[in-house]
Structures are given as structure tokens and as C-alpha cells.
Amino acid sequence: MWKLLFIMLTLLAAPALGAQSGEQLSTEQRRILSLENAWNQAVQQRDARALKMLLAPDLIDVEYDGTMMDKTQYLASVQSPAGQPLRMVNESMAVRLYGAVAVVNGVYREDGVKNGKPYTIHERFTDTWIQRGDSWVCVASESTLIPR
Amino acid sequence: MRTILSVVILVCSVAAFASAQDTGVAAARSNILALENAWDQAQEHGDAKALSAIFDNALIFVDYDGKLLTKAEYLARVKSNDTHMQQIVAEQMSVQMFGGTAIVVGTYRVKGVGNGSPYLRRGRFTDTWVLTDGHWICVAAATTPILH
User: Fold this and answer.
1) pLDDT per residue as tens digits for the range B110-135
2) A71–chain B nearest CA distance, Å
3) DSSP of chain B, one letter per residue?
4) Considering A44, A91, A97, B55, which has the largest number of Cβ atoms within 10 A of its Cβ?
5) Which own/partner contact pairs does A117-122 have at CB distance under 8 Å and 24+ positions apart?
6) Taking the model in full, what pTM does it have?
7) 3-state SS, residue A91
8) Does B134 touch chain A (CB under 8 A)?
9) Beta strand B68-70 with B55-62: parallel, antiparallel or unpaired?
10) Are the beta carbons of A126 and B126 separated by less than 8 Å?
11) Domain count along chain B
């Protein structure tokens, strides 16, 4: 219940964290950037219910190592006990709108523990969102590692 | 009798409409795959003009090393061939249609020579295409090395 409430509040929040600067954002752009941040929160809290709301049934996810997953596989990976992200931050994001389609490009950092060892991932992501009715859902996501 | 005739006409109309839609989707898929292949050809031949026609002006391309390129930067690189690509082969591609939006996910292999040494790379890409004024244009592209 609290998690759902958090997502609702995130969606209503006007200023989106890590948002593009230097230009006025439309309501829809702000909404999409808030959804991106809600996604991180849901992963960190392993909240499959919230993720199901954010991701399209036909989601295609390409991870930083080239692994491709559908929605079911992605949700299972979030629930996996092997890794535990402790901190997930979208350092920068920019969203472009094409009618009922939005493309978000951003830089993301994740710190956590995997198989007992600490790790840090720094990657660039490209997410495509589609408007379905009043909601936006992510249909494609690809991440690419940024070398240190 | 009239009722039966009306039902038959309705069923036939729905079937014809569904069939026309399927044909439209199949044609769009085929069109997009042709554009993907044209992209590879144009890149191999350093044909920036051909690429310019299929890219949105606000295109963002994320390269396999996490570097972000605008359309102008991408086209300049194709012209100069500073990546020294000799052959690009799309190994497999699938297209998912979302109305006037298409997501292409595929794997590719690139052969080239860099710093005097030959290289061979394999990666996975996600391209987002949007139907604009009757034409499909690519608005976002991301590539990720396949690490295993």
C-alpha cells in the first residue's frame, strides 16, 4: 500500500529529479521523468506490483551486458536474491516527445552488493514510453556501460 | 433472414478490416526492416545523405562504449569513417509494432581495422522508429556489446 502511495506521489510531484535543465518541460515530460524515478524506487524495493504498472506487457529490455529480457524475465531478475541494489540514481535525463511516444536518454549509477561483493555500475540508458489511455508504459529499454 | 444476412455482412466486414490491418502491419514491418538494412549499407559506404533522410533531426544515438552522439555527430563520423568499419551485418532483427511506433531489436556484427589492428565486435541494438508524415524515421538508437 505504501509503495503504491509512493508511486502516486511520485507521479504527482512536479519537479522530476535528475531532469534535463535549461528548458521548460511540459506536463507530460515531467510525468515521464517521474516515472523513471519511480522505476528505480520500485527496483530498489523489489516492488513487482509497481513495476508491472510501469512496464508494458510486451516490454523488451536489453541489459548492459547485451542480455535481452521480456517483462516476465525482467521482473524475475529484480526479485533475484543474488543482487541487492543499495543506491540507484538517475544522474541526468532528457525526454523527447513525439505525440504519444516519448524517448528518455539518461545516465544512471547503481551501487549495491552482488554475491557478497560491492559493485558500482555506471551506464547510459535509452527508454521508449508509449501513451496508452491516460497512462504511459515503457515498451523498450536498453542500457550501455560507460567505461570508467 | 435479414438478421442472418446482417450478421454475415458484419462478420465479413470485421474479417476484411482485420485482414487489412494485418496487411498494414506486415507492410510496415517489412518497410522498417528494409530501412534497417539500408542503414547498414549507407554506413558501410559512408553515405551520410542517405542516413540523414531516415534519421529524425533530434536523433540520439548511444554507441557501444556508452558515448552519446547527436545526428550531426553521427553523420560526421560516418563521413569520416574514423571507426574504420569494413562490414556491418545485422544477424537477426525483430520488429514490435505499437501503432505509429516501431521498436526494432537485433544483433549485429562489425568488422573493421582500428589502430592498425583488425577488430570484430558483436552487439545488440534497440532502434525506435516513429511514423511521421507517412514516413518512418528513426528517433533513437542504442547499442550494447554482447559480453557473453
Assistant:
1) 998 877 888 899 999 999 999 999 99
2) 14
3) -HHHHHHHHHHHHHHHHHHHHHHHHHHHHHHHHHHHHHHHHHHHTT-HHHHHHHEEEEEEEE-TTS-EEEHHHHHHHHHHTTT-EEEEEEEEEEEEEETTEEEEEEEEEEEEEETTEEEEEEEEEEEEEEEETTEEEEEEEEEEE---
4) B55
5) A121/A64, A121/A145, A122/A146, A122/A148
6) 0.86
7) strand
8) no
9) antiparallel
10) yes
11) 1
**Distance separating alpha carbons of residues A125 and A105, to the nearest angstrom:** 6
> Domain with B33 in it: what CATH number?
3.10.450.50
| Domain extent for B91 | 2-145
Domains of chain A, first to last: 2-145 (3.10.450.50)
Judging contacts by C-beta atoms under 8 Å, the chain A residues touching residue B146 are 65-66
Q: Which pLDDT tens digit goes with each residue over B1-42?
A: 666 666 666 555 655 555 656 678 999 999 999 999 999 999
Give the ipTM of the model, two decimals please.
Answer: 0.85
Angle between the N-to-C axes of helices A2-12 and A27-44, in degrees from 0 to 180, rounded to the nearest 10: 150
So what's the pLDDT on residue A12?
Answer: 45
Per-residue model confidence as pLDDT tens digits over A75-99: 999 988 777 889 999 999 999 999 9
| Cell 514491418, residue located | B29
Using CA atoms, how far apart are residues B124 and B126, in angstroms rounded to an integer?
7
User: Residues of A with CB below 8 A from B145's CB?
Assistant: 65-66
